[in-house]
């Protein structure tokens, strides 16, 4: 029996995880969606986090004219908002504060987004190269390019703003060579305008031939041609088995 796609998970795969979930696609575009074999724990469709994440992506991608994001919100998210005593509605529209005359800001539960993007990122990596990273060797961080970095007390996360600005400019300005960038080779009919993914890092080429990943990996997710999430898997360097010793600082 096949193992689950998630790094470190030894459970047998009893379900199929759609990457991203089926609910992200309008009915007319549910064609040749990507899947990986998954255990129940690492299947987002079982945890219902997918609806929370989809609601937030849609709300941030809706424009004044009808687009795919507004269609998906109407058909897939809206009917779910009132279920279980308005559980999803309360989660999505949490702690409102006034933004301007017409609009309000809502507090986003980043830990929910992070656990969703952990699964999606590892899912697309596994789909692409059929290998798992060793989790202990990596720091994983997701940058939500289109979301503001203000917490409920109005504090601004300057580090996050700096990182996001860097990646935004990098992705816009650099004509990435095919050597370091792979587009996911999608099957016929797959709707890349709903979700597309790019992998950045020379290690991706090497990993096709060798057994493991040895350097950092960047995965860029794009939803509805607008909402961008940069997932940084930063390789942690270990000095344990090298002759290099770093002297402690005198204080
Ligand atoms: Zn699993």
What attributes does this structure have?
251 residues, alpha+beta, two-stranded antiparallel sheet, 7 helices, 9 strands, globular, binds zinc ion
Cα distance spanning the termini: 56 Å
Tell me about the largest β-sheet.
Answer: 5 strands, antiparallel
Query: What sort of overall outline do the alpha carbons produce when their principal axes are compared?
Result: globular
If helices are DSSP runs of H or I spanning 4 or more residues, what is the number of helices?
A: 7
Strand content: 15-25%
- What value does the Rg take, in angstroms? 20 Å
* Side-by-side strand order of the widest sheet: 5-9-8-7-6
Which residue ranges are poorly predicted, with pLDDT under 50 across at least 5 consecutive positions? Answer: 177-181
N-to-C order of helices and strands: EEHHHHEEHEHEEHEE
Annotation, overall tally of beta strands: 9
Helix content: 25-40%
Q: Hetero groups bound?
A: zinc ion
- Average pLDDT taken over every residue: 85
Q: What is the count of distinct domains?
A: 1
Assign the structural class, choosing from mainly alpha, mainly beta, alpha/beta, alpha+beta, or little secondary structure: alpha+beta
